[in-house]
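Following up on my earlier message about acetamide. Here are the inputs again, as you asked, copied directly from the submission form:
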Amino acid sequence: MKRVTLLIVTFLLMHGQMPLAAQERPISLIPEPVSVQPGKGVFVLTEATPIGVPSGQPEVARLATYLTSKISPATGFTPKTTQSGGDGGIQLLLNAKPDTRLGAEGYTLEATTTKVTIAANNPAGLFYGMQTLLQLLPKEIESKTPVRNVKWEIPAVSVTDYPRFAWRGLMLDVSRHFFTKEQVKDHLDHMARYKYNRFHWHLTDDNGWRIQIKSLPKLTEVGAWRVPRAGTFNTNDPPRPGEKPTYGGFYTHDDIREIVQYAKDRNIEIMPEIDVPGHSMAAIAAYPGLSCTKDPNTKVNPGSKFSTWHSNGTFTMHIDNTLNPSDEQVYQFLDKVFTEVAQLFPFEYIHMGGDECYKGYWQKDPGCQALMKKKNMKNTDELQSYFSGRVSTILKEKGKKTMGWDEILEGGLPSGAAVMSWRGLKGGIEAAHQKAPVVMAPSPHCYLDLMQGDPAVEAPVYSTVRLKDSYNWDPIPKGADSTFILGGQGNLWTEQIPTVPHAQYMIWPRAFALAEVNWSPKGRKNWNRFVTKVEAHFGRFDEAKINYARSMYDPIIRVKKNDAGLLVIDLSTEVNGLDLYYSFDNTIPNSYYAKYRETLVMPEGADMFRVVSYRGGKPAGRLISLKTEDLTKRVRK
Ligand code: ACM
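Thanks, got it. Here's what our run produced:
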């Protein structure tokens, strides 16, 4: 290479403008496949590359159209679809004889210098093989506009792959903040890249009812709208007298059918959640007769505080947000709701909520007390179990199975119901013991609404779960019968998430970790390699313009007090190879500053500790600044 060319190439490489050749690019697949055998050479995707589809397979033809739609924006060309069996190109094949290793969602991908063959038993497997193919292409393939001067190379490789779990879910709460149809579709697209196949759609809660129910129009006329508030959830002002509820939205039946089809085209089943009997303030605002207190002034909650959480884990709801389980009209209401929900969603499960149900109003209600007496119930847990059983029967009549949060175990699990374990592992272990199907979605490891880095630089939430914690989590709890564990799920509650960029920030990269947890063989997990892959996928997200968190580069700060009463600061990192630079003198540290080597003692009189991470001489994490009083609050007893 001439010196001048060399200089230009070096410049372009340093500035990230020239894609690496496939052989130089490490293969960075998330989730990690069962087996990856690198070959020699590269396959080059060009304008002339056909996509081969077997004849008489319209589903595979649709997949080819999908693949084309992913390839065209960045490359600027549209591969032709041809009948499969040619010598070259990308060949999509359905196995004539099922490959038993692959199951319903597995695939093989064979890339040589002349041909890429994706084979599977089912279209779902081909879909996942195509996601792997896209991840093998340079990151620029994620661009939505044509990128010039990229060689669309795929490294020669042989991949065999299938999922560890049948349930690989993400939950999105659209009640606390509404996300539009197009935003939900984008989210489904992002899920599909990482081989998620279950979208749990939390459609109702105290802060908004988001699904049109034609036979109960007030649910959306009233329940979908609340007064606008820009402040922090749980501290917002309650609605003022006469104030117009203008913030919100809902999905029509047509919207839902469109989204269900969009998901199906990406091998994603949608499980809708109607959260009852608690978390029902939006429904009660629409139809106050549904609660015990029947308060006609009930309003959709705008993120104002209406509960007190006690130190023993119990809670009091100061506004009644609970359906009345002793009122037959409530079951007539739910029958109407679930008739329409069951018609709209083809998936076998409907989630009936069941979490955090406050029973204080039931205890005072003569109707509830009479029902408990009549049915010989010892406590209100049994009353909730009665309610869950009635809902489960309604769902069965509509041809659906019930899923609920782990509270539905209390007072007795309805027969045939599945449990989503969220208050840690206990509920999941107990449900599996009762031979009930379980989805493991425990807090904190699967709670994507929690902070992921140092609280000083994260949007405030009550707790933290870092990327490595989520990555190291396993869906099979010790002591549980694994045959009943369907898989795992990440949950995005949106009290503190009013926008799409912030939702993306909270989801990624932790949903990379959970994708790998749920898909990849346990033995293939490797934290350090995962971090390298995450960084490669950050590059892809930059191209795709999807937001993500770089919190993994922030130090973990632990504070103690020594015998002399001075603050002792211990720093560590979840990512290897970071250098931490700090100051105590209220100036801004960088790589010219003192480097952290061992536990620090805050000098007497110092009022500020600052720390920042670098890697390879370049800034990596964010500047964290903690005043003495902030550090003191963090002292571990
Ligand atoms: C939940 O987090 N309340 C299920």
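One observation from looking it over: Residues 554-633 form a domain with the Immunoglobulin-like fold (CATH 2.60.40). Hope that helps, and feel free to reply on this thread.
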